Amino acid sequence: MTTLIVVGAQWGDEGKGKVVDVLASQAQVVARYAGGNNAGHTLVLGARKIVTHLVPSGCAYPGTACVLGAGMVIDMDVFQSEVAELQRAGMLLGDELRVSLDAHVILPFHRQLDGLREDQASGGAGRIGTTRRGIGPAYEAKAARRGVRVRDLLDPSRLRVRLEQNKQHVDFELQRHGVAAIDVDAIVRAAEGWAAWLRGKVCDVGALVEAAVRAGQRVLCEGAQGALLDLDHGTYPYVTSSTTLAGGACAGLGIGPTRVDAVWGITKAYTTRVGAGPFPTCERGPLGELLRSAGDEYGATTGRPRDCGWLDLPALRHAARLNGLTGLCVTKLDVLAALPSVQVCRRYADGAEPGEVLLEDVVAEYEPVPGWGDPQLRERIAVARRLEDLPSPARAYLDAIEATVGVPITLVSVGPDRAQTILTRAAFG
Hints:
33% of the residues lie in helices and 19% in strands. By secondary structure, the protein is α/β, with parallel strands linked by helices. Helix 3 (108-120) crosses helix 4 (135-143). The longest helix has 21 residues, at 156-176. It starts with a strand and ends in a 6-residue tail after the last strand.
């Protein structure tokens, strides 16, 4: 096995950064295939805490190729700043970084449109809860065939044509809200700097990944957000603007599905969501606040507090089907031990199933999980390095997840540091 896709199996924020960081120690290529700087992946490396937004989470390993695929949308100012910060931390000092020529670019007017539209939603009704980073408008331009790609930054004349196309479609909306029209000349000037910085980093990412697979190298494909935020299969319209599923890795990187060997999904031991939209197992009272505090549940990109609740097994089972999961990674198992009691949603009332009914219409039914009231349990979980080391309530909880979802658990995270990880199955054969 040489190619592994890692995806979020909830509403994002599942701990993909840590899991990819752990698995990247065994990979030669780490490739992200979708999303933009609306994603934040947190890496805890000893005493250091690093948050990446665009760069794949394999950046901590010198010599490991870090690839940004065609399915991404890239804010060049954010990208340059992030790379500079990582280099100051001693990372990406070689020739590791590669960017797809066909990735689309987030421009200043995309960010402006994102904020204006979110503010325009009257009284909060219709607000999606976007990160206001310009992600949606950039994907909108892509679908409308007037997007600006990385390769356009290298050709000023072609870039100018693209920008004039956008100006015709966007200026009226900007000016209606009292915002200045698109300044084509200013963007062309900024692109000169971006292009100079990008030279030597751009390539046909699909060809790069295909060559790595053919050479027998280990390729780790990194998703962004989570399955329930997928544009096609998530809780529409409260979703992101791209595909978040494992199937998106092929389109977003430019490789065929026959190149994929395994798909691991990541879930917290409980559930969180940020932004608007349905959340059947949300706890809005003291237990939800306790989960947020114990799990430090604040967005890595925006700092927004996340809504927290119990593990939703029907939704997780649905995500496993959508992604064809072959393995399940459970993160933040230790956080549950901070609670006086634990519950789990095994089913919805009347046997409702995600995909058949809207999640805003379901009623979660809970079962108590015994044995979680011991105040010393969190410490015992945090020091475990094998499944056999886990206390019996934690083992029973994992067994129940595995049996209900029907996917073997391949990794368990028992704390934020990369060392606090139990790997139950080899990621690469």
